């Protein structure tokens, strides 16, 4: 799938920085090779969470909303830079909660847990302090629903 022009492009210019690609994206090098930057996935996303990233390649902006895993981006990707294989998870990334998280500062807050449909954020009581959020990696789908509602933007995605 690599044509001469694209080889030249990849050799002659720095690769775009790694970003959160749309769900079911091929591994980064393959993805960059196949993606034509047509923006069809951006137009297809009913959540409007796909935006142009570095070099014009699509990335996810969880500041807008979460991914519902509808698959519309994948089915509209003609070059198959996004491809959904049976049983394959959309992503391997997980959210991380930083030290600015309100309960870690002694303030009661459970907003992220309230927005997590799959209940992947547990608040465990602890003696002498507010319950702290804990992300259950085995349950988390990486949908990003917890990012935007956090009042102090304490949650980010670890690539
Ligand atoms: S799966 Fe659906 S909601 Fe998620 S990025 Fe693709 S089009 Fe948007
Ligand atoms: S639809 Fe596919 S080829 Fe087009 S910008 Fe999105 S990922 Fe790239």
Which keywords apply here?
159 residues, alpha+beta, Alpha-Beta Plaits, two-stranded antiparallel ribbon, two-stranded antiparallel sheet, elongated, disordered N terminus, binds iron/sulfur cluster
- CATH class of the largest domain equals Alpha Beta
Tell me the number of helical segments per DSSP (H or I, 4 or more residues long). Answer: 5
**Structural class, please?**
alpha+beta
Low-confidence regions: 1-5
Estimated share of beta-strand residues? 15-25%
- What ions, cofactors and ligands are bound? iron/sulfur cluster
Number of strands: 6
Number of domains: 2
Helix proportion: 10-25%
Can you tell me about this structure?
The protein is of the alpha+beta class and 159 residues long. The chain folds into 2 domains: 72 residues, Alpha-Beta Plaits (2-Layer Sandwich), CATH 3.30.70; 65 residues, Alpha-Beta Plaits, CATH 3.30.70.20. It contains 5 helices and 6 strands; from the N terminus they run H-H-H-E-E-H-E-H-E-E-E. Strand 4 and strand 5 form a beta hairpin. Bound molecules: iron/sulfur cluster (2 copies). The site of one iron/sulfur cluster has 14 residues, from helix 3.
Task: Furnish the topology, listing elements before pairings.
Elements: H1 4-12, H2 28-34, H3 40-44, E1 50-52, E2 58-60, H4 72-75, E3 94-97, H5 111-115, E4 121-126, E5 129-135, E6 155-158
Antiparallel strand pairs: 1-2, 3-6, 4-5
Residues 22-23, 44-45, 47, 49-50, 67-73 line the site of one iron/sulfur cluster (SF4).
């Amino acid at each position: 799938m690599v044509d001469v022009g694209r080889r030249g492009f990849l050799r002659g210019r720095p690769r775009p920085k790694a970003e959160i690609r749309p769900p079911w994206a091929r591994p980064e090098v393959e993805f960059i090779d196949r993606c034509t930057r047509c923006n069809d996935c951006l137009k297809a996303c009913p959540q409007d969470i796909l935006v142009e990233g570095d070099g014009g390649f699509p990335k996810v902006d969880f500041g807008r909303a979460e991914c519902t895993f509808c698959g519309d981006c994948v089915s509209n990707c003609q070059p198959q830079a996004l491809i959904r294989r049976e049983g394959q998870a959309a992503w391997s990334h997980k959210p991380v909660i930083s030290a600015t998280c309100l309960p870690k500062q002694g303030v009661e807050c459970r907003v992220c847990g309230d927005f997590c449909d799959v209940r992947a954020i547990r608040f465990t009581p602890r003696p002498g302090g507010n319950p702290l959020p804990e992300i259950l990696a085995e349950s988390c789908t990486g949908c990003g629903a917890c990012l935007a509602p956090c009042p102090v933007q304490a949650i980010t995605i670890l690539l």
